[in-house]
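Title: Request for sanity check on DUF883 domain-containing protein prediction

Description:
We are preparing a figure and want to confirm that the structure record we downloaded matches what your pipeline produces today. Could someone re-run it with the sequence below and paste the raw structure tokens into this thread? We only need the token string, no images.
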Amino acid sequence: MRDLYKRLEIEPSADDASIGAAIEACDNSALKADAAAVLRVGARREAYDGLHGMLSELGRLRARLGLTHGAYWRGDVANDFSLAPDLAQSRHDELIAKLDAAMAAQATLRHQRRRMPWLLAGVTALGGAAFALGWISGGL
């Protein structure tokens, strides 16, 4: 499916007058016929806009994953909804980095617990003593 808005050089939010002017100014007779058949009929334009939105989202997803079409497809209608690869960090990579940091913190905590068992025993003993003193004095 070709991106009629891109090919006509108009925005998807363009009004009917702008679309009509872009269709009339188009030199490609096949594109002109397709655009007139789809964009000038309200129900067809609504259906096309739904597909256009979905394909645009897929194009953005492919770009975030760094995917592009092969050389054979570049410049063809198959490439209309493709964007340049976006090499920014993906949400998945961000979540994996947070998980790695949490696991490292947990490993550090386990290591510290193994090095200081006397501290844990002392804290437990103090807690028990405080509870017993509270019980005896009638505070609890």
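Thanks, this matches our download. The chain is about 65% helix and 0% strand.
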